[in-house]
C-alpha cells in the first residue's frame, strides 16, 4: 500500500488549529504489513500486541511532543489486524467450519423491519435451530463413519476385517471381548465424542483470545437529542459473551447426545427383540431420557437471543456448566449400557442412520422454508429496492449452509465407504458391505443435475458481461476526451468495468443455486424414502437407458461429493504449510467472520469484536488526550471496521473525527445483504452523526462502490487508469488498479486535506467546484 504526498492545505489547517492531526490507516482484506501501509521500513509498535496493533514510523513515535514538525502533514498511524484471521497456520483448518460460518451470516441478513417483534424473534430462533441441526449433522456424520461404517459393518464382517489389519481386536474373526457389537460401538463412539470436545475447546479458546475485549462503553447518554440508536452504536453489540456461552453449551450437549443416541438406539433395538426385560426397560428409559435432554437443548437454543442494549457480563451457569456435564454423563451411561454382555448379538445390515439423516434433511428444509416466510413478512414491513433477493438473502444463505454441510458429511462418508470396500460402489453389494445410508447416496446423485443447471447460468453471465463491456466502450473514450483512441486499451478498461459489475449479479446467482439445492434436496429425500436403497439398485428392472442413467449419476455424484470434501481438506492442508495459500484462506475469513457468533458458537471467531473496540478506544483516548483532529482512513474491509468503530464513539469524540473510505463495500455488499445494519437508514444516520465523510470509488472496483447517503459523501467514479495513454506525467502505461492502491490517486490527498480542514473549522466541509467533480483528472 503506497501513500500519496500530503497536501499543503492540511499543514496550513494544522498550523491554524494549533493541534496535531492524525491519520489512522486501516487495511482491508488480505492484510498488509505496517511497512507497506506507512511506506517506511522502520516502524515501531505504539500500542497493541502480536495479534493486532497500531504502528508508526520510527521518526513519528513522539509526534505529539513535537507538533511543529507536523505543520504540513498529519501523523500517519497504521492499525494492523490481519493476524486476527490469517496469521496462524493452524487457522487454515477453520476452512472445515465453513458451513457454520455461512449459517452465522444468515442471522445478520434479516430484513430491516423493526416490527412485529414476534417475527424478528422468530427469525433469530429459526436461524439458531438450523445452526443446531448443522452441529447434529456433523456429529451424526462422524457417528456414521466411526460407528456404522467402521465398527458395525467392517469390523463385523469377516471379509472386510480380514482385508484390513487395523481393526484387529475389534474384528469378529478374533472373538475377543471387544468383538461384541455393543462394545465395538462404545469404543468407536470416542471419535465423535472427541470431535465434539475439540469443537468446544476451539470455541472456548477463540472466545478468550479474540472476542473477550471490553467495548468502549455506553455512550448513548452523551448523545442529544435522544433517539433510537443504530444497532452498531449499542454498547453490547460487540460483546456477545452471554449468548455465545449459552450456544456453546447447547451445541456441545447436542454433540454428546447425538453420539449417545447412535449407541443407545442400536443396543435398544436388539434388546427390544431379546428376552431380557431388564435390558429392554433400561434401553427404553435411556432413550426417553435422551429425548427429554434433546428437548432441553432445543429450548435453550430458542430461549434467548443477543443482548445489545447494555454490556451483559452475566453467564447462565445453570446452562453453561450443567447442560454439557449432564449430556456427557448420559453419554457415559449409554456407553456402559452398550458394553453390557450380549453374546448372541451379531452386527447385520446397517445402523438406523438413514432414518436419522432423513429427519435431519427434512427438518432443515422445513426450517429454511419457514425462515423464508418470516423474512418475506418482514420485508413487506420495510421494502427496499437494493435489498438482496428481496429480503430472502438470509434463507438463501441458510440453504447454502445446509448444502455445504451435506456435501462435506456425505463426501467423507462416501470416501470412507469406498476406501473400506476397496473402491467398490457402496450399496451395490449389500451382502458384503452396505455402505452409507441410501439418503447420502441420493443427495450425492443430484449434484450432477445442479452442475448441469450451473453451466448455462455461468454462460449467461459470461455473455452478458461481454455485451456490457462492448456497450461501455464509447463511455470509456468519453472519460478520456483528449486521448487518441486505442482499441485494445479501450477494451481492457471496458472489460475491467464489466467484470467489476458481476458483484451486483451475485444475489441472482446465489438465489438460483439455493433454490435448486432446496428442490433437488427434496427430490433426493423423496427418492430415498420411496426406494429405500441407492438409485442404481432402485433402477434394477427398469429399461436399460434408465438403469444406465441411474448408475451414471450415482457414480458421478459419489465422486463429486468425495472430491468436494477432499478439496476442503487439501486446501486446508496447503494453507497450513503455504503462507500464500494461508493468506487466501484469510481473505475468506476477513469477509465471513466480521459478524459476531450469534447463531453458531463453533463458527470461526469474529475478529471485529477485537478490532472495533481497538479502533474506538484509540480514537477516543487520542483525541481526548491531545485535543487533536483525526481522520480514520479505511480501505475495503477496513472501511467497514472504521464505520463500525465511529458508531461506537461518544458524540464529543465524533466531532473531532472524520471518516475517509475507499474501495468501500459498506453499501454495495453489506447494505444489500445486511440491510438492518448497513441499509439506507443506518448509513444516513452515520452520515449525520460523523463530522464529515468522504468515500472514493472506481467503476473498475469489484468490491467497493458509492455509499449512496446523499450530500457530498461520494467522490467518484475516479478515473482508472489515471491516464489512458503515455503522457509526460505517466510515460509508461498506467495500470488498471481496480480495488487496490487508492492512495496513488491525486484525489486521495485532496479529499484528506478537505476533511482536515473541515475538522479545523468545526463545520462540515462544503465541497469546492474542484472537489465536486465526478472524476479525478489524471
From TrEMBL:
Key words of the record: Membrane, Transmembrane, Transmembrane helix
Spans traversing the lipid bilayer: 92-110, 122-142, 249-270, 282-302, 322-343, 355-375, 396-420, 440-461, 508-532, 552-572
InterPro entries on file: AB_hydrolase_fold
Name this polypeptide is given: Uncharacterized protein
Organism: Streptomyces hundungensis
